[in-house]
Design goal:
- The structure is a homodimer of 363-residue chains.
- With 363 residues, chain A is an alpha/beta fold.
- Chain A folds into two domains: 1-103 and 271-363, Isopropylmalate Dehydrogenase; 109-261, Isopropylmalate Dehydrogenase, CATH 3.40.718.
- In chain A, 39% of the residues lie in helices and 22% in strands.
- Chain A is built from twelve helices and twelve strands.
- In chain A, a hairpin with a 5-residue loop joins β6 and β7.
- Chains A and B meet through β6, β7, α7, α8 and α9 of A and β6, β7, α7, α8 and α9 of B.
- The structure holds 3-isopropylmalic acid (2 copies).
- Chains A, B: This is 3-isopropylmalate dehydrogenase.
Chain lengths: 363, 363
């Protein structure tokens, strides 16, 4: 059996707790003969700052580059609020994304029927919701230069961030969105602000051009502010939603929150397919490091375990193992097991590790 | 009685329809001896493009500059989708904001009890909701330079937008937010992305500094993506929410949509207070030009009429007339009058002008 090189980067906050459950699942998959991994571990974010004074060492980056896939927990937290901008926890994650070329961030927003009542939205608006947000992840205002704060002659300051997008960057993310839509309902919505931003003008133009190769897919352009509204008003109108790095950051969080299942949603960040047909990939939960609940056993490990399932499927072609894992999660939920984030009022939630154990029992 | 110079800019789509109702209300206020206006009218947006080939003439801008206050309907629509970027409908509105120095955009998101069932959110989450979004309106990525698309040697393109914020720009909007909070619940949340953007770093730093003058107000910093989530999850946690131009665009739309009363929400865009104690001001509905329903009599004129009420109160100190107008709206709603956007399923809505008439009858 092939053994895949998997790098685990637990990160900060609840990251290590949910990653611990993934390690248990990996052990179980191995014991069942379903998948074999060479596991490496390293630090990223605040934990790397604490150990090495920076959020990602060159060694960790080299390890990430050499791995077949990366699983990441989450980074950041108030503990590192006073660290310099260049070495803040998030800089580690951003460097991983940029240096590994992980330009395509896939963020599913799925509403699990059993959890629909946990949504802030009325049940009928979210029941059956299944949106795939395709967020551009290595361009835009996250990485454009200049990005600086300068001091003016009078002692006051001036901050600049630069949003840059090229035709090539927009083309490749548009292809990802249209290819995905083909396998889904055949609908893409593209969100930008072409009425205010030149990058929005180019975004709309390039997405429209790429669309010409996909006559079987419908394309709708929507202004990002209106898109945010529509996500709240009638989220099921969307299937694949493609957008830039910054709008994707905000819109994917809105979409995830709608589902009432934030602790359940995995994500994939993918690079370009290389000559050998493989691509760099990092999988992580949509949720953040949630420092307020870290160390309490409250965290839901399902998003992290689901990220492993996505990894099995997309990076290793282990569809069967992924299916088994996904259905173990479904059965566990059907049995009524609930961590605090998804427990109904008045019921007793189980802990992070109890949820992990329950899923492994269902494997 | 003082006569105030009011410039009406109906704009595009449903703008002229809702402005027509405001004109009727102005006539009624005059007939009742409550307020007297010198009314001027001009074009902005698509209607100005159609008439003059550009979205705001110098004469219209001069008129706006000379007016005591401006009421604006809405601008834009697919009809002008192929107009050059520099003369698109939105450019007229952006020039008004920038050239008149209207840096403080106040966007209340209020959930009217009678309309709470119209929200996508569960009633208990929005009932009593009353957020004031304070959006910076003349800086950030909307106006920073360079803002351009260049063609690369290989024929592909590169688009750039620039987000710029200075200490002074952030200070003055922070003061607006803290001053407002003092008159409300004493709580400000400030949203930015200091973990990714240098302008976010400066934003957080300056807001924190200004806060030192307001020991009676509490300040919370929140990342813009998390803020979007929290608005959906538990919107009532916010009172005054201050943020930059672009995040303000998106977050205020989310907040407005939550209320189920998008057609009811007015907004004010205010300049600095001058030596004489007055300030430039433009009032407009939070909703857009809604070209899909234009000309059908479906539009709700309440947001536009509420914008007049805000104008009476904030620009002219006519609190009594504003109160009368606001309570006429409340009584009209209590009587069951509903335009399509707020009508319950199975009930018969009234038209834009019937709603205007009903409100005038209650005056
Ligand atoms: C941690 C942070 C840098 C990151 C982002 O802004 O991209 C996060 O919000 C996300 O969405 O993955
Ligand atoms: C019409 C458009 C330029 C405008 C904006 O982006 O500011 C609108 O969305 C708004 O929020 O007033």
């Amino acid at each position: 059996m092939t053994s895949y090189k998997l790098l685990l980067l637990p990160g900060d906050g609840i990251g290590p707790e949910v990653m611990a459950e993934v390690e248990k699942v990996i052990g179980a998959l191995d014991a069942l003969g379903l998948a074999r991994f060479e596991i490496e571990r390293d630090l990223v974010g605040g934990s790397a700052i604490d150990a090495h004074g920076k959020p990602l060492t060159d060694e960790a980056l080299a390890r990430a580059d050499a791995a077949d896939a990366i699983l990441l927990g989450a980074v950041g937290g108030p503990k590192w609020a006073d660290v310099a901008y260049e070495i803040r926890p998030e800089a580690g994650l951003l460097r991983l994304r940029k240096d590994l070329g992980l330009f395509a961030n896939l963020r599913p927003a799925i509403c699990y029927p059993a959890l629909a009542d946990g949504s802030a939205l009325k049940r009928e608006l979210v029941e059956g919701l299944d949106i795939m947000i395709v967020r551009e992840l290595t361009g835009g205002v996250y990485f454009g230069e200049p990005k600086e704060i300068t001091t003016l002659p009078d002692g006051s300051k001036r901050a600049v961030d630069t949003q840059v997008y090229t035709t090539a960057e927009i083309e490749r993310i548009a292809h990802v969105a249209f290819d995905l839509a083909r396998k889904r309902s055949g609908r893409v919505a593209s969100a930008e602000k072409h009425n205010v931003m030149k990058s929005g003008v180019l975004w709309k133009e390039v997405v429209t051009k790429v669309h010409a190769d996909y006559s079987d897919v419908t394309l709708e352009h929507v202004l990002a502010d209106n898109c945010a509204m529509q996500l709240v008003r009638r989220p099921k109108q969307y299937d694949v939603l493609v957008t830039d790095n910054l709008f994707g950051d905000v819109l994917s969080d809105v979409a995830a929150m709608l589902t009432g299942s934030l602790g359940m949603l995995p994500s994939a960040s993918l690079g370009a397919v290389d000559a050998k047909g493989s691509r760099k990939a990092l999988y992580e939960p949509v949720h953040g490091s949630a420092p307020d609940i870290a160390g309490k056993g409250y965290a839901n490990p399902i998003a992290m375990i689901g990220s492993l399932a996505m990894c099995l499927r997309y990076s290793f072609g282990l569809g069967e193992a992924a299916d088994l894992l996904d259905s173990a999660v479904t059965r566990t939920l059907a049995s009524g097991a609930r961590t605090r984030d998804i427990a109904a009022e008045g019921t007793t939630p189980i802990s992070t590790s109890e949820m992990g154990d329950a899923i492994i029992r269902e494997l």
